[in-house]
Amino acid sequence: MLTHPSGGDDMTDNVRAGAGASATSSGRSAGVADQDAPEHFDAMDTAESYDQNLHDDGDAMSELSEDDAAEDSNDDEDDDTEGSRPGPSIAARDDSVQGFFDHKDSIYAVAIHPTVTDIAASGGGDEKAYLWRISTGERLATLDGHSDSVTGVSFSADGSLLATSGMDGLICVWKVSGGEGAGATVSAELAVELEPGSEVMWATWHPKGNVLVAGTQDGLVWMWNLPKGDVMHTLSGHTGACTYGVWASDGKSLVTCAEDATLIKWDPRSGSPVARIDCAADERLAPGPDGQGAWNVVAVDPTATVVAAGSSEGLVKVINLAGASSSGTTNNNTLIASLEAQQESIEAIAYSSSATATGGALLACASVEGSVAIYEAGSLRLRTTLKHDDAVVALHFEPNTPYLFTASTDRSCRKWDIRTGQQIKQWTGHQDSILCMAVAKGGSKVVTAGDDFAALVFE
């Protein structure tokens, strides 16, 4: 995938031995004030309580001249210092209203606090993560502790915890408090370090509680109870790097995909697979021709029975999980559709959460070829194709609105009205590829970041 830097440990062919061992270590202070755990932490301190919780219901950008390009090339040869900021490479309109510029390398991940929407987090190739204020660009906290690129940042559902994850095989979980109102103090204290033992490919919080799951390069999926960091389950079933994972909207199931072309739906209470599909073994379900290719991303429909998996070969397979068993057997009802409107790697995929606002439930698939294919979720008819000028690396349906946000390595972020397929806004300002995007609740602000070491704010 484009947004995940290369490097790290080599992918193993088999799951790592000793997977049941503890994956936590004691925390240390980040040099900011401590905070008492919120009351709801106590309700999530054991797997038993978690089980109870599960049952609760632009303008075109101009090109460099040949002379300027040659000069830039010479400058690059003269200065090989890692982390040196790239100079402006285009004369682009800057639509940003604010920015954060403390990173010294590419920024791979951004997130916006779910309740205090003036606070953002970012992580990058400089091995740093930061908390910062969106309205002023002020740095609020430096989150040290990683020894390799920070490729993931995510807030828990209530924003009281922040997880930073990276290529060093480490997840740091921070207690975050304060920040409401201009000038308000923000504190971030390291609660616990989680050590799954292999490069972290992704990490995501339970949609309701303080449970974190993460997939690693060795194919394992870990589940922790926070803030204590107790290991709830270590899930094994993939033999290739686990590239993506997503919770069902009700939090009662988890779906993961991997480079070995497997898809698994898990019961998070027991840690057992509900359905496992080895797609490479079935030509109908394979992510590419002749059983080739890997799954990059996966999305779960609102019923939690259908998944859409996007592949490195540009295919999207819509699969009925009810047509597969935990042992891997499938039937003729397993494959619902093979979507082939795009030819290059699928980098992001999502179902709309509001059928009314968008004129019917939709499925959006973003590709390296610069397109976003929009399908009607029921009939899987191609409704429209949205166009960028380069790879689309992120997309976001804003709930209860007809709007879709997209970000691209063409250095632009765009807002679309899905009812008509029309572009509403195009924001520019980056001097290099955008790699990640976060949208504030309600869609009032968008934060993008990437290879120019900058995080920009648009509204």
Describe this protein with a few key phrases.
four-stranded antiparallel sheet; mainly beta; five-stranded antiparallel sheet; 459 residues
Unreliable runs, pLDDT <50, ≥5 residues? 7-82, 86-91
What portion of residues is helical?
under 10%
State the helix count.
2
Shape: globular
User: How confident overall, as mean pLDDT?
Assistant: 84
Give the strand content.
Answer: 35-45%
Radius of gyration over alpha carbons?
21 Å
C-alpha end-to-end distance: 28 Å
The side-by-side strand order for the widest beta sheet comes to 1-10-9-8-7
**Beta strands, count:** 33
> How many strands, what sense, and barrel or not for the largest sheet?
5 strands, antiparallel
Structural class from helices and strands? mainly beta
